[in-house]
Amino acid sequence: MSPRSKERFEFDTIRLDDSLSESQYSQLEGQIRSAISGRLLSAGTRVPSSRKLAQILGISRNTVLTAYEQLISEGYLETVRGSGTRVAGLPPEAFEFDEHPQLPLTGTATAECLSAAGRRLTELAKSFPSAADRATPFRPHLPAVDEFPVAVWNRFANERARWSSQQLNHCDPQGFPPLREAIAEYMAISRGVACAAEQVVVTSGAQQGLSLVMQLLIEPNDTVWVEEPGNAPANQLLELARARVVPVPLDAEGIDVSGMPTRGGKPKLIYVTPGGQWPMAMTMSLNRRLELLTVAQRHESWVIEDDYNGEFRYTGRPHPALCSLDQSGRTIYMGTFSKMLFPAIRLGFLIVPPKLSQTFAYARWLHDRFSPPLTQMVLHRFIESGNFLKHIRRMRSLYNDRQKFLYHSLLEHLKTHIEVDLPESGLHLVVRGVTARAEDRLIAAAKRAGVEYHSVKMYSREPKAVRGIILGFAAFDKQATEKAIRDWSVELARSSP
């Protein structure tokens, strides 16, 4: 029997479709690769010469050569001197040629291979939000990216793209020094924080900043006080660090630590969002800030000030940062440019005590060395040129306008069904049904109307005890807001008893 009759794969059955956007050589590679992976071509099988296969398929020899070269580089084919080109003796999928039956992978088996933290993340991932191509009202957390001065940013990006050899070789793990200087200067003007550039640590967003804090300041079973309801992702990170997370209730002034017992252990750390509490949106009063710092000093606790949206205050000037009021030097400030500018920037920063800055910088180096230098350089140029402050002021005015428009639209169309407050700051409102049953109907109607929201229960450790619907307003203009509220109202009316 001739070698040709032994072949289990007939090369003349290859079909190349000129109507596809995929090139001919890529189609050819794929079909031969699949034949090898599917064991239609066994190890050692000789394949036609490039000239012969080109004649069989009626295509250019260069097309065949290009496909063969790629498959050789990937290890599917090999050239044997004097014997032409053959299927490799041990191609990449050789492990699939095992004749023994393979046990199916199950969810249980996959979970069992994970650490305790990994198993916890497997459970948390079930509620991971899916990303949509375009945000619709009223998805929280989003700034108005369509209002960002992209042309200015691109101009600075083009300027900074002309790198020197020094910039190609190294970047300070603590952050681009001129950017740290600009951040320190801005914090002194905006938030009253007197700090040196050496105290600023640039991070890849606030979440990385919190991870660094936990690694350096928290031991397993240390007690950490958090707001209830509060920042669920931050609380999850604390739990993964095996901290003992203790919820602290809120009132109209923010977190209330005055009556917290310490029999379960004094708090090693207190995590707060004073500039605009997440998710309930109140701003921590000055008296409450001073009270919190007093309690923290008494217990020798660290205070983490997550100021994710403190710049967007609509009644008077932003409150002084906790960090600026703390005389004990135990408050660490966390800021993020993802809310102030745009999410994709993925830059944040910490302000840490001077004696800890080198330790935090080294921990940052261990994490991922440093944030992309080009982005840091462009951000520095954006700040020092005055465009950052200009953008913040413009967004503060825009968000104030959008907040009030959403507030009045809610009262106009849903007033008999809801309770809603107008917070002093932030990028979201919290709507409550007048009763628990009314809130259930509001949520059902929102889903039918395609209204995006977050439930306060998502951020509570005691979901049965809280109510509320979180509506982000910053990213949506008046027309989009008005339409969404009207659609919501229509769906709610249809479900009225």
Q: Main beta sheet: strand number and arrangement? A: 8 strands, mixed
What class would the helix/strand composition place it in? alpha/beta
Quaternary form: single chain
β-sheet strand percentage: 5-15%
Q: How confident overall, as mean pLDDT?
A: 87
Number of domains: 3
How are the strands of the largest sheet arranged?
Answer: 3-10-9-8-7-4-5-6
- Helix fraction by DSSP (H/I, runs of at least 4): 40-55%
CATH superfamily of the largest domain: Type I PLP-dependent aspartate aminotransferase-like (Major domain)
CATH class of the largest domain: Alpha Beta
Stretches where pLDDT falls below 50 for ≥5 residues? 1-7, 97-103
Give structural notes.
- The strands form three sheets. Strands 3-10-9-8-7-4-5-6 form an eight-stranded mixed β-sheet, sandwiched between helices.
- 42% of the residues lie in helices and 13% in strands.
- It has 19 helices and 14 strands.
- The protein has helices spanning 3-6, 24-37, 50-57, 61-74, 107-112, 116-124, 150-160, 165-169, 177-190, 206-217, 232-240, 286-299, 322-325, 337-340, 357-368, 373-384, 387-414, 436-449, 478-494, and strands at residues 77-80, 84-87, 200-203, 223-228, 244-251, 254-255, 267-272, 302-306, 331-336, 348-351, 418-420, 428-433, 454-455, 469-472.
- Helix 10 runs parallel beside helix 11, helix 17 (387-414) runs parallel beside helix 19 and helix 18 packs across helix 19 (478-494).
- Residues 1-7 and 97-103 have low confidence and may be disordered.
- The protein has three domains: 3-97, Arc Repressor Mutant, subunit A, CATH 1.10.10; 145-389, Type I PLP-dependent aspartate aminotransferase-like (Major domain) (Aspartate Aminotransferase, domain 2, 3-Layer(aba) Sandwich); 400-494, Aspartate Aminotransferase, domain 1.
- With 497 residues, it is of the alpha/beta class.
